[in-house]
Amino acid sequence: MPDNTLSLLNVFDLPPEQREILLHLTRKGPTAPPALAALLSMDADAVDQALQALMNVNKVRINSQGEAE
């Protein structure tokens, strides 16, 4: 069974885009994907792919307001 808990070591194992997004969400709270792209100077497609990968392992979810959290 995969480890879905969040720890510092797990964060370091993530690809850079996923790590940046996860750290932003942890520090700043729920953020819409377009805002993540702008705030992190990332391409919108890269943000979408990183969020999907994080959702696939239950690290983030999209809330009812359309924000990643």
Please provide a written account of the structure.
This protein is mainly α and 69 residues long. It has one domain. The protein is 57% helix and 0% strand. The chain has four helices and no strands. The chain has helices at residues 8-13, 16-28, 33-39, 44-56. Helix 2 (16-28) packs across helix 4 and helix 3 (33-39) crosses helix 4. The longest helix is centred in the N-terminal third of the chain and has 13 residues, at 16-28. The radius of gyration is 11 Å and the shape is globular. 16% of the residues are buried. The mean pLDDT is 90.
State the total count of DSSP E strands.
Answer: 0
**Fraction in helix:** 55-70%
Order of helices and strands: HHHH
Rounded to the nearest angstrom, the distance between the terminal CA atoms is: 23 Å
| Average pLDDT for all residues | 90
DSSP summary: helix tally? 4
Indicate the low-confidence ranges by residue numbers: none
Shape: globular
Biggest sheet descriptor = none
Tell me the β content.
under 5%
Overall SS class: mainly alpha
Query: From the alpha-carbon coordinates, what is the Rg to the nearest angstrom?
Result: 11 Å
Number of domains: 1
Question: Which features characterize this protein?
Answer:
69 residues; mainly alpha; 4 helices; 57% helix
Task: Give a brief rundown of this model.
The protein has helices spanning 8-13, 16-28, 33-39, 44-56. The chain has 69 residues and is an all-alpha fold.
Q: What is this structure's SSE topology?
A:
Elements: H1 8-13, H2 16-28, H3 33-39, H4 44-56
